[in-house]
Design brief:
The chain is globular, with a radius of gyration of 19 Å. The protein folds into two domains: 94 residues, Rna Polymerase Sigma Factor, Chain: A, CATH 1.10.1740; 97 residues, Winged helix-like DNA-binding domain superfamily/Winged helix DNA-binding domain (Arc Repressor Mutant, subunit A, Orthogonal Bundle), CATH 1.10.10. It contains ten helices and no strands.
């Protein structure tokens, strides 16, 4: 097949927005198709990792995430609506090797960013001043690893409850329990009467 024919085929596929499962299945025989997955999700994966471990480390981890996902592309379950939870599952495993530096990264966040909202969220993370952000970082550090992982996949990875459950290999009810516990501890750290308290919840009806 010549280059023009191949380009035309993939342009046609882009126009009808092929499902992630279809792309993974076809990429086994046509590896170049995996670039569609890369283009769709690299920014989300990198964004999540950079908030966890900083930009320098995130560059390497994001690249490694896609290398491993490419190598494992034949094992992707096409029943999943989108590949982001699967990709973040790989990223979370890579992050396990960087736990020691995460506390330092949380402190660095206190002088640079808080939990930034996406414009489309109804219940978004509010603007916080430096003092509130420092208390937020302290609260995050006090969470146990399991609760913090669920919270950050929700707030930074922008996953739904079921998707978090898929990433962590736990029931969705456990996800809800971990998020509720994490929110409660953060509220205590931030003081509930502070007008700048960060709200880390979305409408339950949109995240079941």
């Amino acid at each position: 097949m010549n280059h023009l024919a191949r380009s035309g085929k993939y342009q046609a596929m882009e126009q009808r927005e092929p499902a992630d499962g279809e792309i993974f299945a076809r990429s086994v025989a046509e590896p170049e198709m995996f670039t569609i997955i890369f283009d769709r999700y690299y920014r989300s994966v990198y964004g999540y990792l950079s908030r966890r471990v900083g930009r320098t480390v995130a560059d390497d981890l994001a690249a490694e995430t896609f290398v491993r996902s490419f190598e494992r592309r034949s094992s992707y379950d096409p029943r999943f609506e989108r590949a982001l939870p699967w990709l973040l599952g790989i990223a979370v495993n890579l992050l396990a090797h960087h736990r020691r530096s995460e506390a330092r990264q949380f402190r660095a966040l206190a002088v640079s960013v808080g939990l930034e909202p996406r414009e489309s969220r109804e219940d978004a993370v509010g603007r916080v001043d430096a003092d509130t952000t420092r208390r937020l970082i302290a609260g995050l550090e006090q969470l146990d690893d399991y609760d913090r992982e669920a919270l950050l996949l929700y707030a930074w990875g922008e996953l739904k409850y079921q998707e978090i459950a898929d990433v962590l290999g736990i029931p969705v009810g456990t996800v809800r329990s971990r998020l509720n516990r994490a929110r409660r501890k953060l509220r205590q750290a931030l003081e509930s009467d502070d007008e700048n308290v960060v709200q880390l919840r979305r409408a339950e009806g949109t995240n079941g």
